[in-house]
Amino acid sequence: MAADQWKSAFLAVCLQSDFQPLTELLSQDHKSSGINEASIDWEGVFLTPLFVASLLRLEDQLPQLVAAGADPNVQCFYAGLFCSPLHGAALRGDVAVVEALLAAGGDIFAEAEASAVEGEVETLAHTLMGLHALHVLVAKDIYSEEVYRLLMRRGLRLSSCCLQRRGGEIPGLLLPRLLGNQHATEERLDRLLGEEVQLIIRSAGLAHDLNEFLEVVSVLRRDHDVTYRCANDIDFPIREPEPEGSENAGREEEAPTALLFAAQAGRCEAVRLLLYAGADAARSMRQVLAMDDRRVMLLQTQAVQLAVLRGDLVMVEQLLFFDISPDLTCSGKVFSGQDKELCEEWTGLSLLHLVVLSRSYDLVEPMKQLDCRLEAVAKQRLPDGTVTEVTPLHLAVLMEDAKGCTRCIDCGAEVTETIREAALQRRPLREMFGGSSPISLQDWVEAILMGPETLQELLEQRTDLNKAFAWPISGEEAKELLEGKALSSSATTERLVEAFCNGRTAFDGIRPVHLAVVLDQLWALQALLKAGAKLEGFVTEALLDPLENPNLQGLEMDLALLCVRAASLEMLRELRDEGLLPDVNYAAPLTPDMTPPFFPWQVDERTLPQPLWAWQGLAPLHLALLLGRRDVALLLVRLGANLLQTVDHVAIEAPWHYSVTDNCFRGLTPLHLCALLDQKANASALLGEASGNVPFVFPGEKRPPQNKEMLGAVCRHVWATLDSNKDSEKEEPWLWRDVTPLHLAFLYKSYVTAEALIEATNGNVKKSPRCPSPQPRKPYESPSF
User: Fold this and answer.
1) Could you report the per-residue pLDDT of 375-401, keeping only the tens digit for each?
2) Which residues form the domain of 306?
3) Where is this region: Disordered (predicted)?
4) Does residue 603 belong to any structural domain of this protein?
5) How many CA atoms lie within 13 Å of 376's alpha carbon, on the beta-carbon side?
């Protein structure tokens, strides 16, 4: 009943193009629909529904049949074979159906069996077993090149053996001769064997499959007079010539052999087996090599030269072991990419020349050890007839290949005057060969922000890694410098423009290591240090309108101060983790006060163009507080910054206005700065880092100062200049002395900060068992705190 339904549905498709009955059947339960039963009487044979669909070329319905439960590998009797639908589709030469069956899960290696019809004389063709689809095509004397190539690309091999029912194996390549084929002949199959060899060389089981193929070929050569080229010559061409009229027709001097294909594919094991089988390593093939974005070079290369172009040292050594000369050369022609006009002709290209051309830099030293000469000379001929002798180093120069030049020079290549003159004319190589450095700040920023490969290219130019640069003053120039790079970010751009482009100061002495730090690229800093850069030198922040005093030209920042001034908190932390952060208590001996709270300064509604004060002993922690970078200040404290480190704030010239004197101090601690600038949050954070008022456990114990030490630290409010003697009360009369942070907060009306200090002070008094009484003051003494 089910068979009749299926047959009616298929007949409706054939005769009326009506797919409705077939669609209804596909929607039924496949267990009761007989979808895998060979019960449909179709042209005198009984087939499954899927087999019939494949014969009707219903490739679009095959996935639906499989989804409905059809098994694409159920075998039926068809065309004198017990076979699967895949065999039937191959016999009919239907490529689309073959591909659809394979996509639906058909077994490419399914085996068919021949059988004789009752009353028919049994021949060799009727006794064959274990036939995959290619064997079936040969056994039935059917030749469809498109189907053959499809099946071979999917893994089937003509050389594999099939079986005889009465025993014994027969290589598939021998079937045409034994069966007397008229269509699937040896001559036709010979054109397909190159496809099979390529498949074997690419396969995972290369050694076993190639050995098996070579053994079959050997048997055919020894015992049978076959016409296959592979049986007579292991170097038969595995790729047919380009058709007449095609783009590449006539350009290839020799078709590739199996050995050349294996070398080109990087299959070292196949190269070894083919060489032992007698393959000729002197055969050559055309190879296209990109010189740059505009030009390509066409080379006529042998197997060892292909291995060099691939950068495969193991294969090179293997080929040279078979008595190939390390002095082997080849020729090439360079064509422009668009109009294919001949630009250059090369002769005498040695293996080391090919190393440079392929940029296989790691092969320079090993190839030299294999007796390849760095002094080997190739000849370059230009269209005007000019001939130049070119060594591998000279070739690297002509290619503007800094890395290639580096490898050749490191391995001992001679730098002649001709090579030096050519290098000095090329920007990337100029500095490497003794010329002036063309590398700018923009080059370094781009290299760091574009990633490791770009930075490595710049490092290969052997440029001065410690050269100092000036940062652009204009914010627009700085944005143009930073934006549009792979690793740039708006946050980094905003931070650096704000730090470096304030319109009042300029930054000089910025080295590549400093750039890596302020750009938040630790990997770049590590690469620079590995390449030999030194983490030293000062970055100077100088006034655009300099002072007359030569000692007050700017702030010289070491790495710690630079991090506070312009780097991120994350970079400061990473430098600490890598052990690259210098002493966080370094103090700049003398610097003009260019910090935001004091510069520029206004007097009587007039903005002064130059600073009025100078800092003596400015440390990173002081600078972080002056710049309002609380997170950085806290990290510095945890990295060992001294909470009691003092700094002096003095007038550059004799005060001429009361506001100048009001801001002159000696001995300001970080907590004094918080009180002076009314930074309550910073003051509370610093006090939170104190060790508490507990006794020392042992003498000389290292720990942060106690709360009472910070709260009790005193400074002096004095009339102080650069030239005055701070130890002389005559030269520096004091206005207030013994000023604690709390006193300073009241004096400068920093009442919010004063509240925090009072709370901290009260907390200390409550914890202390005894509080010393204030000392009485003599009548003649000046009042002081």
Assistant:
1) 999 999 999 999 999 999 999 999 999
2) 234-243+250-435
3) 764-785
4) yes
5) 25
